[in-house]
Amino acid sequence: MNGISTTKPRRFRTAPLLAPCVAFLFLWMIIPLAMTLWFSGERYNLLVPGKSAFAGWENYRSLLTTRALWVAMGNTLFLVGLVLVITLVGGTLFSLLLDQDFPGRNICRLLVIAPFFVMPTVSALIWKNMLMNPVFGLFAWITRSCRLGTIEFFSRAPLLSIALIVGWEWTPFAVLILLPALQSLNPDLKEAARLDGAGPVALFYHLELPHLLRPISVVAMMEMIFFLSLFAEIYVTTGGGPGLASTNLAYLIFRDAMLGWDVGRASAGGVLAIVLANIVAFFFMRMVGRNLEENR
Amino acid sequence: MKNTRPLRWGLTIAGWAVGLGMFFPILWMFLTSFKTEITAVATPPAFFFRPTFENYAAVLQRADYLAFARNSVLVSLGSTLLALALAIPAAYSMAFFPTRRTRDILLWMLSTKMLPAVGVLVPIYLLWRDLHLLDTVSGLILIDSASVLPIVVWMLLSFFREVPAVILEASRMDGASPAEELVHVLLPLCTPGIAATALLSVILCWNEAFWSLNLTTVKAATLANFTASFSSPEGLFWAKLSAASTLSIAPILVFGWLSQRQLVRGLSFGAVK
What we know:
The complex is a heterodimer. Chain A is an all-alpha fold. Chain A has a single domain, classed as MetI-like fold (Orthogonal Bundle), CATH 1.10.3720. Chain A is built from 13 helices and two strands, in the order H-E-E-H-H-H-H-H-H-H-H-H-H-H-H. Chain A has helices at about 15-40, 60-65, 65-100, 105-115, 120-130, 140-145, 155, 160-185, 185-195, 200-230, 230-235, 250-260, 265-295; strands at about 40-45, 55. Chain A has a two-stranded antiparallel ribbon. Chain B is mainly alpha-helical. Chain B has a single domain, classed as MetI-like fold (Orthogonal Bundle). Chain B is globular. The chains are: A mainly alpha, B mainly alpha.
């Protein structure tokens, strides 16, 4: 067991210790959730004076029959999938590299994880202006020097550009988790495998990858939660455009709520976002629950 | 293990290429912050130039930059203190007096992180409007502390669980009440862990952008708002933007580098020790 005393029965009530924390989180969760559900059934626009009225499924119907929602859903899933692949593959490869012994590896590790600590609005601006700007940006200068012309990142491939930025921000997160996990692998095991004639590929496939599987899945699930409601990077770079090309679900709801003041519609969108996140969360909870038991 | 010489060279080059490549955008921003506005947009890009500090002077002279910075400090410190105040007793109780429901409570806390912020944007906005919390530092503190609270509880718990129960029992034998036990025995023992937890919370709150962009405009706007305001295409003040950004990320970057080992625990929810 985990060092918890079994000799002494509980002598005092733990409720006063737990209650503030639990109550705070409960209120934070339940009140907005109930309000979102309520508003999503209302005809309620802050720009239209007068009382709100019951609308039944109208908000959902209007939302589900617009193309924008499906485009945004598609963009959301595309972004989540693409950035997950970038960060997990990149993170695993970088971790394997930084796990090797070479001069300056500790400095390199610090350099690699640095982007994770940069404010998302700042990262998005650095990339948008100083690197990807088609006139003055560094990438434009490089491609022009190679006589490749300029790439109009945000008008030609807005989603890919955003995925690149978010991938740069979150690959360090994967390294931050996967590198220590890799280093916690018993070196004797590696030595034994090497003596048995396992090459680097076999070593990775049969020893390191299985060892990394659980941390990788935790990284994937954590990232999925964040990527499902990616916002600041889109807000700063493309504003969801051109057209709907880089509008994800989070940005669509923001547009309905903060630019259109349509409370009913935005709430219906919010409910859909919650449903989508819960499908993801379902798998996450199962996994973390298993981790918890294995750790105890 | 010993690598052969060519392999070692290859690894060194690859490692440094990856490190410098990932760091390059930050380095480039840092360099740009010492350029004049004209050198900042020069083609070909200037790698060598006479550094100037005029951008930092200009940014620091703008009264509003300092106001944004003050809000960021207040929000991240305030949220962290509130979250710690709520989480320390809870984590103490769950670490040393677990019940049948402890595991459920922990998982439920984590599940509140699954609620996407956009899903509750509208009600929070309307509630905050009616409670006069819109564009206030305290309004943002409430939100941020609620969103970091589950991570803070989990991370504290993992540190508390490493304290041998025997030590606490000894103090209990000496007649210490649970409150005394917490304050005089557990907290001093766990100071490094609590510091690491606080640091992670500060980092997360400092970089939080969604709520500060949506709930604040002027009075309580943080550095995230300030930097986002540079996104308008007409303003090509890259050097000043770089100076402001460097000032905004430098403290957090240093904190992050110093505490990276401990952060792993909180960020992986205990999957990596």
